[in-house]
Design a protein that fits this description.
- The protein contains nine helices and nine strands.
- By secondary structure, it is an alpha+beta fold.
- It has a single domain, classed as DD-peptidase/beta-lactamase superfamily (Beta-lactamase, 3-Layer(aba) Sandwich).
- The strands form three sheets. The chain has a five-stranded antiparallel sheet with strand order 2-1-9-8-7, with helices on both faces.
- The protein is globular.
Length: 304
């Protein structure tokens, strides 16, 4: 994206001031954009996203959406803050959504989108070793500096927006400009439904297996969130995000991922009193909702 002049930087800064985050956390405070060179990115032809509506198999019980909705509401009574969750069984098309179109910040979950945007334009085996290294530490360690470099490489928010059209995302928007020490990819706004759409696109991405492999290998201390919904023995590919808002000292906690390469899960939360409280809420929600799709014993593995 070319930096805006005069009016647009001021408007962007005012609109996003409430989403600024404290230094030393996932992202720092927002400042006015500064002119920076942008790498030219080749145009990518847009492709239609065909409807994926597989039929449930006789062995797959229907999801009791009313019962799950009631269970989610009970869980949230003692856990304040905005919350949304979307789960899709990629084998059968069964879905559950709760507030899934609520727009919330991505935090570091945006790093999956950045990597997929990169691989939409460039093949993994042709990337320089340094770029591959950035991709690895961005996903596995949630390294922000690596994300900055790849954000530049894809063309910043303009490149992300172009890729997201191909991915079929409907409500994900990155902001222009830059933040202190970092670009503003971490305050990209998205929905749980869009994050599931992104995960659903992975098999169609030429190097989607690279993304899944890196998400399966996140460092142990970051394997919380979506993993709470997995049965014993099931592989989990995930990416989490966390940031603290300067305006109110409350936390946004997010988690997206794939369980057993079958269940696409996205949970976005905001206004958590602490990061620990937000993580606990995310894990309780994922565990309860996945129980509505199957029992671990019926998967041929032991219970959680």
């Amino acid at each position: 994206m070319s930096p805006r002049r005069l009016v647009l930087p001021l408007l962007a800064a005012l609109a996003l001031a409430v989403s600024a985050i404290s230094p030393g956390r996932d992202l720092p405070q927002l400042v006015t954009p500064a002119p920076l060179p942008v790498r030219a990115v080749a145009a990518v032809p847009l492709r239609a996203d065909p409807q994926f509506v597989p039929k449930p198999r006789p062995t797959d019980p229907p999801v009791d959406k009313r019962k799950l909705t009631q269970a989610v509401r009970r869980l949230l009574k003692s856990r304040p803050g905005r919350t949304s969750i979307s789960v899709e069984d990629l084998h059968t098309g069964r879905v559950f959504r709760f507030g899934a179109n609520t727009v919330l910040p991505t935090a570091s979950v945006a790093k999956v989108d950045i990597l997929m945007a990169l691989l939409l334009d460039e093949r993994w085996d042709r990337l320089p070793r340094s770029v591959k290294r950035d991709a690895e530490i961005m996903i596995r360690h949630s390294d922000n500096k690596a994300a900055d470099r790849l954000w530049e490489r894809i063309g910043r928010e303009g490149g992300l927006a172009r890729a997201n059209k191909v991915f079929g995302l409907k409500a994900t928007t990155a902001v222009p400009g830059r933040c202190v020490d970092l670009y503003c990819w971490g305050i990209t706004r998205t929905t749980a439904d869009d994050q599931v759409r992104l995960l659903r696109y992975l098999p169609r991405l030429g190097d989607g297996d690279v993304v899944r492999r890196l998400m399966r290998r996140v460092v142990p201390e970051q394997k919380w969130g979506v993993s709470a919904g997995a049965c014993a023995g099931e592989r989990v590919a995930l990416k989490n995000g966390w940031l603290k808002h300067v305006a109110n000292d409350l936390w946004a906690i997010t988690s997206v991922g794939l369980i057993a390469d079958r269940y696409a899960v996205a949970v976005l939360t905001e206004d958590n009193a602490t990061s620990e409280a937000g993580i606990a809420k995310v894990e309780k929600l994922v565990e309860r909702v996945l129980d509505g799709f199957r029992e671990c014993g019926s998967q041929g593995v032991t219970s959680r």
